[in-house]
Amino acid sequence: MPRLLRLAFAGVMATALALGPVATAAADTTHRQRPLPADKLAGALITVADLPAGFYTMSENPGVAKYISGDPACATMVELQRQMSTNTAPGAFATAEVFLTDLKGSFVWQGFGSYRGMWSTLVFVKLAHATAHCKSFVMELEGGERAEITQLAVSPVAVADMGLHSRFRSTIGAIVLDSDTILARSGRTLLMVNGHLPGRPDLAEDLALKAAANLADANS
What we know:
220 residues, ten-stranded antiparallel β-sheet, disordered N terminus
């Protein structure tokens, strides 16, 4: 995949996170935690050390895609994710993100968003509800290409206090890509991992578990 198109595709994924079945872990620590500041979130992000050899950190923003059309719930889902990425969601406190890629076309985007009070739970639940009714939608990339995105069936995951797993199939011209997305709530922080990792469908979940462990350390 051309590098610029790869970046644009990652922008679609970061802007339009879809969510799958919910899995809830045994413990919920929200009431015992305060929202983490940006420096703590940044320190808990995954790094190249957590990925196979050949990955490196991108310094440039992968870009923002524009919502064109889709199921009515998809517009709500995309707008909620935009708010999360820009730290403008209700109750938002701080955000941090990282984008990693390699020369073979694989990439990983990981982000955190911390919230005041119970907003992490409320935002999580609202996203899950919107996604339950969002099946397909179209995004326009910065270069003008259009990405047709559909959700595929996946199994639940158990990450942090609450976790959701989604698999995307995106068609951009002649290019068809599958990617896995994990959204989880850990206390007052939402963590997100999206990755196009051919041959490693389990890696997104592994990275989400690593990010959740990093958050636990940051909260200790």
